[in-house]
Design goal:
Length: 560
């Protein structure tokens, strides 16, 4: 049952629509006031009455029933308290019934949503700067699937450009096949960095030639390029596996090589293309933006040209409801331009393209992602988190059996959660110690809470205790149940706002409420009926937190 809706339906205000009322009904921050409240100042103007009077007269009109326990007018607010026992009964029964599906929905049935994320660059380091796009996109992918959409994960590979000419030139000069085979992406990257450090005019010229060779289909150049690409992909796929990340397509920039000309023709036919110093541009001055460069004066296409082709291809192939681009805010202008050009081309679906922008990640010691030569590889950050997690777990519980496995869940969880726990647009400073703090607002705190709940359930099983039923919840039980009931709405808001951090914060908040309940209420020592009901609440918490962490790509160890 939807309580908010139920309450809203009881409220009748002349001249105000039911929808508007439902929108106004909210959960007050101070819950001693009530479970739901209607702020009446919103209607004061329309009714020409003070909020205090509106609240008072509404309070006199609305009767209590089996759902609403009390209605009171307080300072212009109409406060509702709902009957706790049936609420607890219904909520726990629903979680029990739906289990791993609790929180899911069929909102997106029959709809596709493309999510362009991680989008790595071939032969370049996969560094901490790629963390956010990878885990944000990965979480959105899971969240939309959970809501019934068919999410299409796209890794728009950076596999096009003159840098590959440089790489071939460097390899031919200094490369040794076995070393590159062994060193993989690290070896390729070293060659590339060396080229950039040592290149003179002659080498640059040679690199341009190799690039043209790739373009013109030269066999050797293409074989080398494909080799570099496969080494890069093999490497990143290892990291994706660790982070529980999936893709349905690896169609990168190169894939659009033969799909750009039709776009250029269409731009020209629609009289959108202008010549400017030999280059071809779409003028966007009218919209307060610099021009979108389509072809350079030497005829070469650009990043934007390929994104135009990609958007059209995706619309034709997937007929998406939305297409998300999970890319750092540094590319705000790029996406504004691309979306605008598509709009000018008359693509009415341009409105369905969304740039999901996020902030930068740096490490506590000031290390950034892209400084020359001093790159922080994501792989190293994950490994370090796992090592630290292993040390902590071993210290806390030396007898724990599968420490490595637990440390992996905790370490990987800390990396993911570290990138997802704040509003996505904020810049993040990643701190190992903070991310692995058992008492902080962290994944390990939530995981530990789950392990605690699991251990209670295990003891109950060993004793053969019954689980189920409901009593009238005391305050800390009630707070927890309310949080559990809030999960489906939280998932929807996370999707609607493209903001997985809402789920991350929800996890911490719910774990805190469980721990308060755990301290305030005896579970295993309570008398039979109360015990069965508290066990049911414990099990429901475990289900909900497991579902919630799962949407972020974080696993739950059974024991810690
Ligand atoms: N490879 C690009 C980069 O590292 C990101 C690509 C994002 N996706 C896109 N369709 N432009 O900056």
């Amino acid at each position: 049952m939807n309580y908010k809706k139920y309450i809203a339906q009881k409220i009748v205000i002349e001249g105000v629509g039911a929808e508007e009322i439902e929108e106004a009904v909210s959960v007050p921050p101070d819950q001693t006031m009530g479970d739901y409240a209607l702020p009446c100042f919103k209607f004061a103007k329309a009714l020409r009455k003070s909020p205090v009077l509106i609240a008072q007269s509404l309070a006199g009109e609305i009767g209590c029933d089996s759902v609403i326990e009390s209605v009171a007018a307080v300072n212009g607010y109409l406060n509702f308290k709902i009957a706790r026992k049936p609420f607890a009964e219904q909520t726990l029964a629903r979680i029990e019934r739906e289990g791993a599906r609790y929180g899911s929905a069929d909102l997106g049935a029959g709809k596709k949503i493309c999510i362009d994320y991680s989008s790595v660059n071939i032969a370049k380091p996969f560094h901490i700067g790629h963390l956010s796009t990878t885990v944000l996109g990965g979480a959105l992918y899971k969240i939309f699937n959970f809501l019934g959409y068919e999410a299409v994960g796209i890794n728009h590979l950076g596999d096009y450009g003159t840098q590959f000419g440089k790489l071939i030139s460097a390899y031919k000069r200094w490369g040794v096949m076995e070393e590159v085979e062994r060193g993989g992406i690290h070896a390729i990257n070293e060659l590339y960095v060396r080229f950039n450090n040592e290149a003179d005019e002659e080498m640059e010229r040679e690199a341009r030639e190799y690039f043209l060779k790739i373009e013109s289909g030269d066999e050797e150049a293409n074989a080398l390029f494909e080799w570099f690409k496969s080494l890069t992909l093999e490497y990143v796929k290892g990291i994706y596996e660790k982070l529980h990340i999936n893709f349905d397509s690896y169609a990168g920039e190169r894939f659009y090589t033969d799909k750009m000309q039709p776009v250029i023709d269409e731009l020209r036919a629609k009289k959108l293309l202008k010549e400017s110093n030999g280059a071809s541009i779409v003028d966007l001055e009218e919209y307060g933006m610099p021009p979108c460069l389509i072809l350079r004066s030497d005829g070469a296409s650009l990043y934007a040209t390929r994104d135009l082709a990609a958007a059209i291809y995706r619309k034709n192939t997937y007929d998406f409801e939305k297409c998300l681009y999970v890319v750092a805010y540094q590319q705000n202008l790029h996406f504004k331009q691309v979306f605008k050009v598509l709009e000018l081309m008359g693509k009415e679906w341009a409105k369905d393209l969304v740039h999901v922008a996020y902030g930068m990640v740096s490490l506590e010691d000031g290390a950034m992602s892209t400084r020359k030569g001093k790159v922080v590889w994501l792989e190293d950050v994950i490994a370090k988190c796992e090592e630290k997690a292993y040390a902590i777990v071993s210290e806390k519980n030396p007898a724990l059996e599968n420490k490595r496995e637990v440390a992996e869940k905790v370490g990987v969880g800390a990396v993911i959660f570290g990138a997802l726990c704040n509003n996505k647009i904020k810049d993040i400073v990643f701190s190992y110690d903070k991310a692995l703090n058992f008492d902080g607002e962290t994944s390990v705190y939530v995981q530990y809470t789950c392990a605690r709940a699991a251990s209670v359930m295990q003891k109950a099983r060993a004793e053969g205790y019954a689980v189920g039923g409901a009593c009238t919840p005391c305050d800390s039980e009630y707070e927890l149940i309310k949080a559990l009931a809030q999960f489906p709405d939280t998932v929807c808001s996370a999707a609607k706002n493209y903001e997985p951090s809402l789920i991350a914060r929800y996890c911490v908040d719910t774990a805190q409420k469980f721990n308060k309940f755990y301290i305030d209420c005896k579970i295993l020592q309570a008398e039979e009926t109360v015990r069965a009901y508290r066990l049911s609440l414990t099990r429901a918490t475990l289900t909900v937190l497991t579902n919630a962490l799962g949407l972020l790509g974080i696993g739950v160890p059974e024991k810690m």
